[in-house]
Amino acid sequence: MISIFNRGFEGWTSARRLNFPALLPPSNADASAEGQIPSRMTYPIREQTLNTINYNAAAASIGGDKLATKLFWDKN
Prior knowledge:
The protein is an all-alpha fold. It is built from three helices and no strands.
């Protein structure tokens, strides 16, 4: 993980993929993460406003457009 220290998004992706290191959410975490380490990124605001029908369908099919919603491959 040291090799990707300066690449935040890649480090986050690797930590989700490998489940290592065991991360703990900070006490001042964003409330929309529901006290968890985010599992996914939410859909952009532009998608929500310009493609509302498909955005609502996609969000409903995955269990809601939330940071804590697990992706289909994330079993942990």
